[in-house]
Every structure is written in structure tokens, then in C-alpha cells.
Design goal:
Elements: H1 7-14, E1 18-19, E2 22-24, E3 29-31, H2 37-43, E4 47-48, E5 56-57, H3 60-66, E6 77-80, E7 83-89, E8 98-99, E9 103-107, E10 112-114, E11 120-122, H4 131-138, E12 143-148, E13 156-157, E14 162-178, E15 181-190, E16 221-223, E17 230-232, E18 251-252, E19 255-256, H5 265-269, E20 309-310, E21 317-318, E22 325-327, E23 345-347, E24 381-383, E25 391-397, E26 401-407, H6 410-413, H7 419-428, E27 451-456, E28 467-468, H8 475-494, E29 504-510, E30 516-519, E31 526-536, E32 539-545, H9 547-551, E33 553-557, E34 564-569, H10 582-593, H11 599-611, E35 620-626, E36 631-635, H12 637-642, E37 643-649, E38 654-662
Helix pairs in contact: 10-11
The structure holds 2-oxoglutaric acid and fe (ii) ion (FE2).
2-oxoglutaric acid is lined by residues 506, 508, 516, 521, 532, 534, 645, 647, 656, 658.
Length: 688
């Protein structure tokens, strides 16, 4: 038996209630089978909304960067320390997804995979003690919602792809049968019932005043005869036990529940009494800008200052794409639906940080830095004579290439025009450093975790960085290029190879907490030598074998248990020193090369060999501690083909200036000029 209609319920019933599986109002009960829902929805004509969201974004990265309570690039829920902070209602909320002006009902998410048609399928049972379910249950007092405009359940035209809705509270978490499993569902209720929701239909009636609402009538609750536990009457079609462990779970009478259930109107329309004590714990829209004090010396490079902001003018979530700050129009995805053209920008005065501020005590060597090499990694050849005052460390990878590390010291760093001066001058210049979109990223719109600017011949590897001509480069860039040309020449000539002077220089800038993940610098358009000058904060460079070369096969994820296993074996296995199953792989390769086995037999034997091995990450083989003023030269095409590197700085500010040789036949004729330069005697470097 449904409870009798309450004041609040009848009021809400006047507003049309939509649901993902069933479209229904109290007076009009029209059932739509779930698989027809999407088609039905796409035919709907969307009505305009009454207001504007307090903040919005065109992609998920913008949202996650600017909204601290939704710092979550995947999944529907942001949970932190056991609480759900933000919830994203996107395209697929499951059967009976419901949104009206005050209530949202959706699946909790998790435990899902996508079928070939892209529909979310619940893979296994979701339990009440799962992390997601626990954090949403713990968040009963409040939660916040954002919503994707792809989600047409509401039947309204939402202004942007992601729109912040409001504060909500969690009123119910329960389980439904989904296929052969059970999954958690949640009902949210808007906290502020007095104010009209911006997503209400344009011209719709204002919300019912609080004093006229009935907060006492709740949907009826019945005790299950089998498990003796109580469950709310959730569905109009009849009461059923909602305890997944009960034998009467999700049954009306003795039969499994029919498909196309609809919610009990009393369940949709009840409202919780407003409680002034359970207000929101943080602001819906953060105000980072007003709390920034630019006079604090190193604030502009600290972690807090590279978050996104909500534009005070157009309310877009804007990432800090620029070295000096935020520019609303610069963080545009080109998909802005509203044709948003906003001129807001906030560029900070960047007070140069002295290198002394970034040093720890172990980094104040007078002449040579003490070095202790960890035997877990390759031990280099040490040469204190040939390039004094530099110490030269050489790491040789047989048949692959070598890495030369010129270790600087105070004598080198403090010379006029040396690394100390370069570090300050780079900070004074407006180099045009920016975050660029990663060209190959799993999540579209992801920006690099560092700032970059390219000078000289265009270089388009990890990110497509527009290149500025050396002719227009600040003087400090040419001085760095002088040092890098010296290091490249010394390292290559001492190995007896041909020196090709660099014609490109990529400057990377790292604020606190930024880094460059594993990647290689191999590209057919590049010469085999790459030289980097480190300035500012100390950092660690890691070098490891590429995963496929380490394992001998590409990585494949087992669909059954989700574990990583070996996929296709390498066509041409170089069998690098230190790779997995090195002896066995080498023996098979030798047999194949000697013509003792066919290519198919070679591949099959390797497949059998790898079948018993779990996929493993390659451990780093070389670890370099990069200090201010150090130069590193990587030489050898195969080094980039078989190995990859990453660099993780430790403090607030670091620059890495990397020079390469871009082959002229890979450069557009119109761009050739950009790579030409001539250095003055002051810009040249002699190794002192
Ligand atoms: O930050 C560094 O030292 C490394 C830079 C780098 O790997 C690159 O520019 O490709
Ligand atoms: Fe690199």
C-alpha cells in the first residue's frame, strides 16, 4: 500500500518526473522498456533551463583541476578519507535513473565494465562494505553534484558539457538486482529547498515554500517475513525486500520482480527536514584567486597556485595553462557550446627565486659533490680529469648507446653567465611557457604535467609545441644553447661519433610537484643525441627498459581476471642485457638466426615460454641525480628505441633545457629559418 499523498508529493508531481527506464508522472504512467530508453530520449525536444550553473567545464580535466571536491579524472564519485565529496551524473546512471529539481537517483558506480556496444555492465556484486558504497553511506549529511549535458534524462538543454548543480544530501542507499548481480543505488536530495534550482524549466513555478511542505510523511517501510529486516517501499509495483543476502531479495511475492519497475511516487516526493546544523563542509565554487598573495616570494610556483580556478566572469573552470597564471580563453577545448568568449585573465608577477632557496644542506659542495652509488643501479665510469672542473660519469649500454652526465659544482655554477645567472634570467624572461595537451593520452584534454616552450626547428614529439625562431629567442636561451652544444660535442666526439650541432631547444619548466613521466625522445626526424641542462631544484632521472622489450611481448589484459599477461611476442627481439628470461630468449633467437627453427616456431616457443610468466613492470636500471648546472647527454638511436626515461624534481622550481638535432628534411621549408642561429663569444661555452 502506498502512503497517502502528502503536500510536498503532490506539488512535485506537478513537475514532470523523468526516469531513465520509465517515463512517468502520477497522472501519466507510460512505461518504456529499458533498451528503448535511449532512443526515446534522443527524440525528446529539450526545454530551456531557468538559470545558469555556478560553475561549468567543457572537459573533465578542467573540472577536476578547478573543483577541489571533484578531484577525480575517472569514475562517477570522488571519495576521499572515506567520504563521498562529489558525484558526477553522466550518460549511464542505470535503470530508473531519475532527476528532477530536487531529487537525483542513480547507480553508485564501480564494479562495471563496458559491453561491445559501450553499455555499462555490472561485473560482480557490489557489497555494502565496498569502498564506494561505504563512502557514500558515510556522507549521509551532504554531497555535491555535477552533471554531464550528455545526460538527457532531465529533458532540459543544459548549457555546458559539465554543469555544477548544487549541494545535496544522501537520503537512501539500497541494492537492486542488475542481471545476475546486485548493485548499489543512491537517492540524493537537494539541501537548499527554498531556492529554485537553476536547472528547473524556464518559466516553471517556484519551489513550494518550506512552511507549506510536509516533512513528516515518509514512504512506508515493511518488515520482510524471511529476514525480518525492514525495507522501504521503493517501487510503485509493490513492496519487496531490498536486502541482497535475503532469499526474498528483489521478489514481489515469490516471483522475481518484473522488468520496467517504477518508483513509488511517495519515495520520490518525500523531503528531509532542513537542518541548519548540517550545512556544506566546503564551498561549492572555490575562490582561489582572492586568497593568492602574490608578494609571498615563491607562492606563484607552489602547488596551490597551479590549480585551476573558476573564472569570476563566465564561471568556467579554467586550468593554469600559462606559466604566469590563468587566461580563460587559453583553456578552451574548442567545443564550448555557448560560444563563450571571455577575456578574463590573471597573470602574476613572478618574483625570481634564488637557487640558494632551493638547496638542501647536502647540496652545498665546495668543489666536488660526494657521490654514493646504489648498487641496485648501473655504476658509471668516473672521470675527474678530462673535463675538469666537471666530473664526467658515463653509463654504457652495450649495443644501445651511452649516457654522459657532466656533474657541475659551485665553481662552475657561480661563474658570470653560468647556471646561477641563467636560472635567474630564465625567471625574469617571459619565455611563453605553457601546458600543452598530451598528444597521446587515455583521457582526452589531458595537459602535460610541466610547462614547455620550443625554440628553433619545430619538434613535435610528446606534445605538439609550437616553435619560436632562435632569431627571436631571448638571449638566455642562446646562452643555454651554447652550453648544450658544448656538452653534445664533447660527449659524441669522445665516443668517436659524428657531431651534429643541435638546432632545436625545448625548455621545460616545473613547479612544485610537477614531473615528466616515462617517455622516449625517439623520432625519425631527430638525430641520435639529446642533451639536457638542469637548472634549479634537484631532480632524479630514471631510465628503464621499455616494457615490451623487458617482457619480450606486448602487454595484454586478461578479460577474465583483469590481470596483465603477455600478448603478441616481439617480431624482432633485441634480447637486451637484463631483460626477463634473457638466456632462454637469446638461445631461441640464436636458433632462429642459425636457421634451425622457422619464424613461426620461434614465435610459438616464445609464446610457450612467456605463458607461465606474469607481466612485470621493468625496474629502472639507471638512476641519475640531477643537480643545478648538470648536463646530461643521451646518445644512440637504440637508446630511445629500447629505453625510456622520466624526471621527478624535488622542490619548487626547475628548468630543463634540452637540445636536439632535427633533420632538415623533416622540417617544413617555411620553418627552416627558425633553427638557424649564430652565437656571440659570450654565448659560446668552453667547459669552464
Ligand atoms: O626534465 C628533464 O630533465 C628531462 C626532459 C626530457 O626528458 C625531455 O625534454 O624530453
Ligand atoms: Fe625526454
Amino acid at each position: 500500500m502506498a502512503p497517502s499523498p502528502s503536500a510536498s508529493r503532490s506539488h512535485v508531481a506537478d513537475q514532470v518526473v523523468k526516469s531513465g527506464c520509465v517515463t512517468k508522472s502520477k497522472t501519466q504512467a507510460k512505461k518504456v522498456p529499458s533498451d528503448h530508453t535511449q532512443a526515446a530520449i534522443s527524440d525528446q525536444v529539450l526545454e530551456p533551463v531557468h538559470g545558469e550553473p555556478p560553475a561549468w567545464a567543457e572537459n573533465r580535466q578542467q573540472l577536476c583541476d578547478a573543483i577541489p571536491w571533484f578531484h577525480c579524472t575517472q569514475g562517477a564519485m570522488y571519495h576521499h578519507e572515506g567520504f563521498c565529496w562529489g558525484f558526477l551524473i553522466d550518460a549511464d546512471g542505470g535503470a530508473r535513473t531519475h532527476i528532477d529539481e530536487e531529487v537525483v537517483i542513480t547507480r553508485v558506480g564501480g564494479c562495471c565494465t563496458k559491453d561491445p556496444e559501450g553499455n555499462l555492465i555490472l561485473q560482480r556484486n557490489q557489497e555494502a562494505d565496498s569502498m564506494l558504497a561505504r563512502s557514500i553511506i558515510a556522507s549521509r549529511t551532504q554531497s555535491y553534484l555535477t552533471k554531464g549535458s550528455k545526460h538527457k534524462i532531465l529533458n532540459r538543454a543544459l548549457p555546458h558539457r559539465y554543469n555544477i548543480m548544487s549541494w545535496f544530501r544522501v537520503t537512501n542507499v539500497w541494492f537492486e538486482r542488475i542481471g545476475t548481480n546486485h548493485g548499489a543505488k543512491v537517492r540524493f536530495e537537494k539541501l537548499n529547498l527554498a531556492e529554485k534550482s537553476w536547472w528547473a524549466a524556464k518559466g516553471s513555478a517556484p519551489p513550494m515554500p518550506l512552511e507549506l511542505r510536509d516533512f513528516d510523511t515518509k514512504p512506508e517501510t515493511l518488515k520482510c517475513e524471511s529476514c525480518s529486516k525492514e525495507s522501504i517501499r521503493m517501487y510503485e509495483d509493490g513492496w519487496m525486500c531490498l536486502q541482497p543476502e535475503c532469499d526474498r531479495f528483489w521478489k514481489t511475492g515469490d516471483v522475481p520482480s518484473p522488468p520496467g519497475l517504477t518508483f513509488n511516487p511517495a519515495f520520490l516526493s518525500f523531503r528531509s527536514r532542513p537542518d541548519p546544523k548540517s550545512g556544506p563542509k566546503c564551498s561549492l565554487v572555490p575562490d582561489l584567486l582572492s586568497t593568492l598573495n602574490e608578494d609571498a616570494t615563491d607562492l606563484s610556483t607552489s602547488r596551490v597556485a597551479w590549480k585551476g580556478i573558476v573564472c569570476p566572469e563566465c564561471h568556467k573552470c579554467v586550468r593554469r595553462t600559462l606559466w604566469r597564471g590563468w587566461k580563460c580563453s587559453d583553456d578552451s577545448t574548442g567545443t564550448e557550446t555557448s560560444g563563450n568568449v571571455c577575456s578574463f585573465e590573471r597573470l602574476m608577477t613572478m618574483n625570481p627565486i634564488s637557487r640558494q632557496l632551493l638547496l638542501d644542506d647536502s647540496e652545498r659542495p665546495s668543489i666536488k659533490r660526494e657521490m654514493v652509488f646504489n648498487t641496485k643501479f648501473m655504476i658509471p665510469e668516473i672521470d675527474d680529469v678530462s673535463f675538469s672542473p666537471y666530473r664526467r660519469l658515463t653509463y654504457k649500454l652495450d649495443g644501445v648507446g651511452f649516457i654522459t652526465h657532466f656533474v657541475a659544482n659551485e665553481e662552475i655554477n657561480s661563474r658570470p653567465n653560468g647556471p646561477d645567472d641563467l636560472f635567474i634570467d630564465l625567471q625574469r624572461e617571459d619565455l611563453g611557457l605553457k601546458h600543452f595537451p598530451l598528444s597521446s593520452s587515455l583521457v582526452a584534454g589531458t595537459l602535460t604535467a610541466h610547462f614547455a616552450v620550443n625554440h628553433g626547428s619545430p619538434y613535435k614529439y610528446v606534445v605538439a609545441v609550437l616553435s619560436k625562431a632562435f632569431g627571436e629567442a631571448p638571449e638566455v636561451i642562446l646562452r643555454a644553447l651554447g652550453r648544450l652544444s658544448w656538452a653534445t660535442e664533447q660527449a659524441v666526439i669522445s665516443a668517436g661519433d659524428r657531431y651534429m650541432p643541435p638546432n632545436e631547444l625545448l625548455t621545460l619548466g616545473y613547479f612544485e610537484g610537477m614531473k615528466i613521466g616515462y617517455h622516449d625522445d625517439g623520432e625519425s626526424s631527430l638525430g641520435p643525441t639529446i642533451a639536457t641542462l638542469s637548472l634549479g631544484a634537484k631532480s632524479t632521472m630514471w631510465i628503464r627498459m621499455k616494457q615490451k622489450h623487458f617482457n619480450g611481448a606486448a602487454r595484454r589484459v586478461n578479460t577474465g581476471d583483469g590481470k596483465a599477461v603477455s600478448g603478441n611476442v616481439l617480431q624482432d627481439d633485441p634480447v637486451l642485457k637484463g631483460c626477463r628470461l634473457e638466456n632462454e630468449r637469446r638461445a631461441l633467437k640464436e636458433k632462429f638466426e642459425a636457421g634451425e627453427i622457422s619464424h613461426d616456431e620461434y614465435s610459438n616457443s616464445r609464446r610457450t615460454l612467456f605463458a607461465t610468466q606474469k607481466w612485470k613492470q621493468a625496474p629502472p636500471v639507471i638512476k641519475l641525480e640531477l643537480h643545478h648546472g648538470d648536463l646530461v647527454v643521451m646518445h644512440g638511436e637504440n637508446l630511445q628505441r629500447y629505453y625510456e626515461h622520466s624526471v621527478v624534481p624535488e622542490n619548487k622550481l626547475r628548468f630543463a633545457l634540452t637540445a636536439r638535432y632535427v633533420k632538415p628534411d623533416h622540417v617544413d621549408v617555411a620553418e627552416i629559418e627558425k633553427g638557424k642561429f649564430s652565437l656571440t663569444p659570450e654565448q659560446m661555452y668552453d667547459g669552464k
